[in-house]
Write a structure and sequence with these properties.
alpha+beta, elongated, 4 strands
């Protein structure tokens, strides 16, 4: 008796290939959904930041035009701070944001060696947290020693 061998794929191999294909489709769909969620979250965050920026800009414009906004004042009044006045003469600084002004102390050098590399006693760190800008200013020579964009902490 002659037994003929089947030339087709054995049933177990076909089942395994089908299971593998289904698994790949499920994993690809899951990864695609995760990436779509990340994109949506990034778009929502960008829209939120843009909305906040527009609100702050309109408040700033209203203050410059003499309009009254409840709870807001033109905080960066150059007549109040001679350091800010000197800094404004050299660089563009945010007009509707109150800077944080700190005298340089040696312990700051450990925080950012590159930024404070040329700092001396008597220098001043002027930081605009909303605009994410920092200036190292030397009052004795009326000079900006360094400038950097800062990250939110």
């Amino acid at each position: 008796m002659i037994v003929r061998q089947s030339r087709g794929v054995p049933a177990i191999v076909a089942i395994l290939l089908a299971a593998l294909l289904v698994t790949l489709v499920v994993v690809a769909g899951f990864l695609w959904l995760q990436e779509a969620d990340k994109r949506l979250e990034a778009e929502q965050k960008a829209a939120s930041i843009e909305k906040k920026y527009d609100e702050l800009k309109s408040q700033c414009d209203a203050m410059k035009d003499g309009g009254v906004q409840e709870g807001l004042t033109l905080e960066n009044d150059s007549q109040q701070n001679p350091i800010v006045t000197s800094l404004e003469a050299q660089v563009s600084v945010p007009q509707c944001e109150r800077p944080t002004i700190q005298p340089f102390v040696e312990t700051m050098r450990a925080q950012d060696k590159n930024f404070f590399a040329n700092a001396n006693e008597g220098d001043v760190l002027v930081t605009y947290p909303l605009s994410k800008r920092a200036f190292l200013y030397r009052e004795s020579s009326n000079a900006v020693i360094n400038y950097a964009r800062i990250s939110a902490q």
